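This follows on from our talk about sequence and fold. Please put the record directly below this note.
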Amino acid sequence: MGEDFAGTAETAPEGRDAAQLRAVYGMDPGFERELAEAWRFIEPHIAGVARELLERRAGGAVPAALVESRVDYARAKLSRPIDQAWVDRVAAEADRIAEDGLEFSTVAASMLVAQMHIHALFFALSSDPGQLERLTRATQKLAVIEFEIIASRLRQIARLRAQAARRPELAEVRAELTES
């Protein structure tokens, strides 16, 4: 599956670029500051959250490298500027999801559960209503943006895979028509 995917990922048309996403979602430096604040708040706890979610899905222990890769993804998502490299990292996450053969419903549910865990962490660690509102609003908005990028990329990959699967059939039909 990964080999077939590699070719389609390279030719998949791009979704919205960073400038379009920033305009559509009203992302400004204040939003990025709120995300950085969220990262500083959850950074000491994120490895435990990631491990718990990964082990629940796997039904047992998972390699430390897998947990660290999820922490790295969260760090980049929350603490880096939202530019084209940021969008490309999220799109690469969709590529990984497709390569791993994960069902879309599993991806969506996993994203929701992760969001719920992060919000529970906010509420456990802060009693400041202003901070809680700021952090939950920013991470909710981020989740919607991430979901759009991932869903769009997965649709592109599915379309390309379907087209690739139809090519041999189309070639057979053409060959039959040519022989007729």
Summary: Helices lie at 2-11, 18-25, 29-58, 64-79, 84-100, 104-125, 129-179. The first helix runs from residue 2 to 11. The radius of gyration is 20 Å. Confidence is low (pLDDT under 50) at residues 1-13.
